[in-house]
What does this fold into?
Amino acid sequence: MLKKIIVLFLMATSVFAAHQVSVNVNDQEVGGEIRLDMGRMGNSMSNAYIGARFLDGDKNNSKTIVDPDPLMEVSFMVMQPVRGVSGLKLGLGIKGEFTKIDSEGYTAIPLGVEAELKLPLNAPIGFYLNGAFYYAPSALCFKKGDSYTESRIGLDIEPIENARIGVGYRKIDTDLKTRNVTYNDAWYFAMRLDF
It folds into this structure.
């Protein structure tokens, strides 16, 4: 429990340097993510982001893990608007994933794609459909890891500028060399702030 409090405290203090902060919860779990926009930090890499994520998974959302440790992540992604398609952004990224699965160390470096579409609705608030898919074959997994697959989809509304709330679904498979493992398979509620 102390580890969780320390990690949440470090994430909370990191908010002051972040350009995007999100929190997602359900009745069993809590997760958080921060992203820093490299272009806004005096770097010439516009639309490039570095980030970190924490997901405190629960065994009730994983039928294959007895005692899941938190999933820690560091990431780098480039995301830009797609020319000719109003409201659509696409991104390519690489992540480092770290956890223990029933006391066995797991590390993976998945590659993936993310997308966000601002729905063309004539409404006073914005609606966004977003999704992501990341994959690491056994060549990009270390320790006891054999593969990593993550898929996410969500729908957000932006009731006020730079603040979103939404609902989403994620499935994260962290397969070991000895067995297939679903780390997380759950719906969640989310809040995101952009600075």
In short: The radius of gyration is 17 Å. The CA atoms of residues 160 and 186 lie 27 Å apart. The longest strand covers residues 145-160. The chain has a mean pLDDT of 89.
